[in-house]
């Protein structure tokens, strides 16, 4: 799938509907996420390095909410463990189709299964690495604990969960500052005030952010021995949870 420039929210005409990972979004997604998520390339690169470190022979690495497969491809090029495969899952048919097309052009040899499904209903088994790269924030709050418990149970001893999320902040000044700086980042990437405003409206009640402490406490609650932030750029962060 050839990526187009994201101009979905450039028009002032029409009501702003709820954000959906449909064909329109899939067609511009690489451009959209690069220009919307500070540090995205660094996170993707590090996911590959971490997978190379933690992937074990005869195990499975999961990319849950894989979109067009950037994290999967990063892992695929770093994993050296024998008989290790990746299961990449997304509930958007448009994203899955786009990823399958990209996968055909990739020369790495690690086996990849691309699945169109609700990740909450997926069985997690024999996992050495699980990636939730800006995915948990789209799962209803009431489902997050059970979902993470399923992941924890499916991870092998010594396994790793990589969790990247947009954050919110308890302190109102921090929340305002981090939001303003994120908007400044997006303007620097070429988005207009109108696009930023309309995108924010579209994501309201769709993307539900939580604080870093809320994420860490939940990860410890389900059983992880450690959950630490390894990367943060304004209100976007990535954590490593160790079993």
UniProtKB/TrEMBL annotation:
S-adenosyl-L-methionine binds at residues 40, 65-67, 90-91, 118-119, 133, 200. The keyword Transmembrane does not apply. Pfam families: Methyltransf_11. Signal peptide: none annotated. GO terms for molecular function: carboxyl- or carbamoyltransferase activity; S-adenosyl-L-methionine binding; S-adenosylmethionine-dependent methyltransferase activity. InterPro entries: CmoA (IPR005271), Methyltransf_11 (IPR013216), SAM-dependent_MTases_sf (IPR029063). Keywords: S-adenosyl-L-methionine, Transferase. Catalyzes the conversion of S-adenosyl-L-methionine (SAM) to carboxy-S-adenosyl-L-methionine (Cx-SAM). Gene3D superfamilies: Vaccinia Virus protein VP39 (3.40.50.150). Homodimer. HAMAP family: Cx_SAM_synthase. NCBIfam families: carboxy-S-adenosyl-L-methionine synthase CmoA, PRK15451.1. Belongs to the class I-like SAM-binding methyltransferase superfamily. Cx-SAM synthase family. GO terms for biological process: tRNA wobble uridine modification. This is Carboxy-S-adenosyl-L-methionine synthase. Its EC number is 2.1.3.-. It catalyses: prephenate + S-adenosyl-L-methionine = carboxy-S-adenosyl-L-methionine + 3-phenylpyruvate + H2O. Residues 63-163 form the Methyltransferase type domain.
């Amino acid at each position: 799938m050839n990526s187009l420039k994201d101009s979905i929210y450039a028009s002032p005409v029409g009501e702003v509907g709820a954000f959906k990972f449909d064909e329109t979004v899939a067609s511009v997604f690489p451009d959209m996420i690069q220009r919307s998520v500070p540090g995205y390339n660094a996170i993707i690169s590090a996911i590959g390095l971490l997978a190379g470190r933690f992937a074990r022979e005869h195990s499975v690495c999961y990319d849950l909410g894989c979109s067009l497969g950037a994290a999967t491809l990063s892992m695929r090029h770093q994993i050296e463990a024998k008989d290790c495969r990746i299961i990449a899952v997304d509930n958007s048919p448009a994203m899955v189709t786009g990823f399958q097309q990209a996968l055909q052009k990739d020369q790495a040899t690690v086996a990849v299964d691309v699945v169109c499904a609700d990740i909450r209903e997926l069985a997690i088994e024999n996992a050495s690495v699980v990636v939730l790269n800006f995915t948990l924030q789209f799962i209803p709050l009431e489902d997050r604990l059970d979902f993470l418990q399923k992941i924890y149970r499916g991870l092998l001893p010594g396994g790793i969960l990589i969790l990247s999320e947009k954050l919110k902040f308890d302190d109102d000044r921090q929340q305002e500052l981090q939001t303003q700086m994120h908007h400044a980042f997006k303007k620097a990437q070429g988005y207009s005030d109108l696009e930023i405003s309309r995108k924010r409206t579209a994501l309201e009640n769709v993307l539900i952010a939580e604080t870093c402490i809320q994420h860490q406490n939940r990860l410890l609650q389900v059983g992880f021995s450690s959950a630490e932030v390894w990367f943060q750029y304004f209100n976007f962060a990535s954590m490593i949870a160790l079993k």
